[in-house]
Structure formats: C-alpha cells, structure tokens
C-alpha cells in the first residue's frame, strides 16, 4: 500500500520557537533583527519549496537488534537498527517506510540566498529548512494515523537512519522498498546523503498494541543533536 501527497504550507505547523532553538536561542529571546529576518525568510520559502511525503506499508519481522522488512518476497531487506529502535518497534504487526522532503526547489532557494552574500540569512534559512521538513514529517504521521484509525491501529514514533545506533549506510536498502528509485524525487549520494539535504526518511511500526511516546530524546545517545532536551 503506497501513499503520496504534495503538502501545502497552510497544512503544516511550523513552530518558530523550534527554529530559534536550533539557532541557539534556547533560553533567551532572539533579538529583533533575527526575528525580522526569520519572518521574512519564512514568508519567502513557499515560493521555492515543494513539500512532499511518501510512505509504503510493509510486512516485517523484529529481532532484538534488527528488523527485516519487505514489500514482496523478492525484496527482503535486513536492517541493523540497534537495540534502542528494535525495542521501540516491539509488538508491531506491520511497518511503514517513509520519506519527506522540502523538494528540489530548495537548491534554487539556497542559490538565491547565497547570492545576497548574507551569511546570517544563509544560516537562518538552513535552520528553517530543517524545521520545515520535520513539520512535513509530522503532518505525514497525522495522515498515517487517520488511515490507521479506520483499522483501529496505532503507530510508534518515527525512527531514521543516523539516529539511535541505526547507521546511515542502510539508506539504500530503505529506499529499495519504494516502488520508484527516487521517492519524492530524493536522490541518494554514494555516501548515503539525501538530496535535497532537507529530507528525512525512516520507519514506523504499526499495530494494535504498539505505543507512541511524546518525548523520546532520552532514548538517543546522539549528544550533539540540536533537538536534545536539557
């Protein structure tokens, strides 16, 4: 089962406080100039970005430190997710592989901003792009849950390669589970970097007895993540 959607900016919630937090304003209010630049860039972003997500429902099996996912018997992919993610996926009956992105227009937006020669705008727009794609993924989860509600199913949190011990090098295996080579137009480099860089991918567990945790930073040992709570 495959789901795809282009998302309007009006449909997503972009928490500006999270953008400021990623810029280092965790405990203080940003200055007026920073707030003005941020608001201007947020208003500018919809002219360039094409928000999208895609997810596919898969069968799978869990082990203590891994999971195996497949869309059909000819393409079974084994993932070394690590014990943290495997534990959070326990009791899953099926799995969702997903991608979300701000779209290839992001490249043009960055070129436009960089041509202005303003490093502050470049930095702020990078933070904005990161938050926007997270907001698209949040929206995707809500749409997924609306599908699950019709079947009395629940979902786990989403988990991505590069976090909680799951290595980024497994991105190609994850992408192979989609029907097209470049879901939502996202390209993988040889080093498994997604292009546009403001893209996310990962898996979600679904089932009658799985649980969603509103706060999971304590599970992850990635100490330099800007979203890590104090």
Please describe what this structure looks like.
It is built from six helices and nine strands. Strand 3 (about 65-70) and strand 4 form a beta hairpin. Helix 2 crosses helix 5. It has one domain (about 1-220): 3-Layer(aba) Sandwich (NADH Oxidase), CATH 3.40.109.40. It is of the alpha+beta class. It starts with a strand and ends in a 23-residue tail after the last strand. Helix content is about 30%, strand content about 25%.
Layout of secondary structure:
Blueprint: E1 2-7, H1 16-22, H2 32-44, E2 51-62, E3 67-70, E4 76-79, H3 83-88, E5 94-101, H4 105-115, H5 119-149, E6 154-159, H6 171-175, E7 187-188, E8 194-195, E9 199-207
Antiparallel strand pairs: 1-2, 2-3, 2-5, 3-4, 5-9, 6-9, 7-8
Helix pairs in contact: 1-5, 2-5, 4-5
Features:
230 residues, NADH Oxidase, alpha+beta, 23% strand, seven-stranded antiparallel beta sheet, two-stranded antiparallel ribbon
In short:
With 230 residues, this protein is of the alpha+beta class.
Low-confidence stretches: none
Number of strands: 9
H/E element order:
EHHEEEHEHHEHEEE
What is the mean predicted local confidence, pLDDT?
Answer: 92
Q: Could you say what the CATH architecture is?
A: 3-Layer(aba) Sandwich
Give the end-to-end Cα distance, rounded to a whole number of Å.
39 Å
Tell me the fraction of residues in β-strands, as a range: 15-25%
- In the CATH scheme, what's the topology name? NADH Oxidase
Structural class call reads: alpha+beta
Please identify the top-level CATH class: Alpha Beta
Number of helices: 6
Rg estimate, integer Å: 18 Å
Domain module count: 1
Task: Estimate percent helicity.
Answer: 25-40%
Overall morphology: globular
* Biggest sheet details: 7 strands, antiparallel
């Amino acid at each position: 089962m495959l789901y795809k959607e282009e998302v309007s900016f009006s449909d997503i919630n972009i928490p500006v406080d999270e953008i400021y937090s990623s810029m280092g304003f965790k405990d203080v209010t940003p200055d007026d100039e920073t707030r003005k630049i941020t608001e201007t860039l947020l208003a500018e972003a919809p002219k360039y970005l094409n928000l999208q997500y895609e997810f596919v429902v898969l069968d799978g099996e869990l082990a203590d430190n891994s999971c195996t996912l497949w869309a059909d018997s000819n393409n079974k992919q084994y993932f070394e997710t690590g014990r943290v993610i495997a534990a959070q996926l326990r009791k899953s009956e099926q799995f969702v592989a997903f991608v979300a992105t701000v779209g290839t227009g992001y490249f043009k937006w960055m070129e436009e901003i960089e041509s202005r020669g303003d490093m502050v705008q470049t930095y702020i727009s990078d933070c904005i792009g990161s938050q926007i794609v997270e907001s698209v993924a949040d929206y995707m989860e809500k749409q997924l849950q609306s599908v699950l509600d019709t079947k009395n199913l629940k979902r786990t949190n989403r988990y991505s390669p590069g976090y909680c011990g799951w290595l980024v090098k497994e991105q190609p295996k994850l992408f192979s589970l989609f029907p097209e080579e470049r879901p939502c137009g996202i390209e993988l480099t040889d080093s498994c970097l997604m292009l546009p860089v403001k893209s996310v991918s990962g898996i979600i567990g679904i089932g009658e007895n799985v649980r969603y945790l509103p706060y999971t930073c304590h599970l992850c040992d990635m100490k330099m993540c800007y979203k890590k709570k104090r």
